[in-house]
Amino acid sequence: MSATDAFVAHRNLLFTVAYEMLGSAADAEDVLQETWLRWADIDLGQVRDQRAYLVRITTRLSLNRLRTVKRRREAYVGPWLPEPLLTAPDVAEDVELAESVSMALMLVLETLSPTERAVFVLREVFDFGYDEIAAAVGKTAAACRQIAHRARKHVDARRPRETVSAGETRAALESFQRAMETRDLQGLLDVLAPDVVLVSDGGGVKQAALRPVVSADKVVRFMTGGIGRTEAKLTSAPTVVNGNPGLVLHLDGELDGVMAVRVEGGRITGLYYVRNPEKLTRVESETSLTLR
Q1: Which single residue of 22, 130, 235, 244 has CA 20 to 30 Å from 173?
Q2: Over the stretch 259-283, which tens digit does the pLDDT of each residue have?
Q3: Residues in the chain with pLDDT < 50?
Q4: CA–CA separation, 163 vs 156, rounded Å?
């Protein structure tokens, strides 16, 4: 297989590895460009496993970039959310894949160290062997085994307690969407869990809460006092965001943001609303192509 064919064959895998490590589709694309440049200079005759070698390059480049962006995120205005990724509808039916890129899990991954995150993603999401992971992160296999155990314990303590089907999430989201568009306050309260948490990311450019909003009453007040207060017409369209049912919201026809949700027990326990325009470029181009 030629260098180009191998890269194209594994591109989706490499993008997902980079995105799950970085939480940014734009950064992941940059890493893939750098991966290709390095891959194109390699003597393929010396490569036994092209897939593993490509993942190794992508992982190391992602680790370097992650250490840089972590410092940048410390100065971020308000809560930071991953760049939303519109995914194919069938991803939502693959429970394991959908959970691995969900907003809820991506936020948990942010609390890991760069190396812990790389090891967790390669082991738990892609089921790489410890020898392969060791080559990718520059550690011994034994050290990677310990890191994986520590990272898994950390993630398990913070990830959602139950696995919810795409259908259950979609049903809760439809109730939320209907109540929001008709400004039905009681309808919103009915679909939101009492201890629901809203995280909004405006990046200092768009209006957003500077810290998470907790409780159904406060979330409803925030939404009706923000989006609800404007005279602009709010419309929302169902989509699949990070492997799970979500919404793309427009105000007077202009893209306003992307909303992902976490559902437990039939009610929404987490709302993640990305309004930062810098994180919506990819979504805007994809949705505009769909509307044409």
Answers
A1: 22
A2: 999 999 999 999 999 999 999 998 8
A3: 291-292
A4: 12
Strand ranges across the sheet with 192-201: 213-214, 192-201, 267-274, 254-264, 244-251, 234-241
Tens of pLDDT along 194-220? 999 999 999 999 989 999 999 999 999
Q: Which amino acid is at 89?
A: P
**DSSP sequence for 76-141:** -SS---PPP-B--GGGGGSHHHHHHT-HHHHHHHTTS-HHHHHHHIIIIIT---HHHHHHHHTS-H
Backbone conformation region of residue 203, classed left if phi is above 0, alpha if psi is from -120 to 50, else beta: left
- C-alpha 235/C-alpha 266 separation (Å) is 24
Structure tokens, 81: 């959310």
245 half-sphere exposure, CB direction, 13 A CA radius:
20
